[in-house]
Amino acid sequence: MILFNVLPLLVLLLVAYFAIIRPGQKRAKSQQQLMQSLKRGDKVTTIGGIHGTVRAVDAQTVTIAVNSKGHELTLDKEAVKSTRRS
C-alpha cells in the first residue's frame, strides 16, 4: 500500500533527473573540456557573439584577435561558447 503512495514521487524524481539534472551535467562537462582544449589558432565564438581567433591561452583567460587589424580582446575562458579548428 505504501508503495503506491511513494511510486509517483519516485517516478517524478527520476523524470526530473533525466530531464533537468543530467543534461546540465553533460553541458558543464562539455564546456569544461572545451576550455581545456583551447589552443592558439582556434577560431572561437564567445557567448556575446564575438568571433575571433585565439592568440594566447592562460589558466583563466584567453586572448582573441577579432579582426585583421590585430585588435585583441582578453576574456575569461568561460566566455567561449564554441570553437572550430583552423
UniProtKB/TrEMBL annotation:
Keyword list (alphabetical) reads: Cell membrane, Membrane, Protein transport, Translocation, Transmembrane, Transmembrane helix, Transport
Q: Where in the cell is it found?
A: Cell membrane
Q: Which GO terms describe its cellular component?
A: plasma membrane
Tell me which domain of life the UniProt entry assigns to the organism this sequence originates from.
Answer: Bacteria
| Coiled-coil stretches | none
- Pfam family of the protein (one): YajC
SMART domains noted in UniProt: YajC
InterPro entries referenced in this protein's UniProt entry, alphabetically:
Preprotein_translocase_YajC
- Per the record's keyword annotation, is Cell division included, yes or no? no
The way this protein sits in the membrane is described as:
Single-pass membrane protein
Instruction: Kindly list the biological process annotations in GO that this record carries.
Output: protein transport
Tell me, in one coarse class, where this protein mainly resides.
membrane
Is Protein transport one of the keywords UniProt gives this record? yes
In the record, the note on similarity to other proteins reads:
Belongs to the YajC family.
- Write the protein's name: Preprotein translocase subunit YajC
Q: What's the gene?
A: yajC
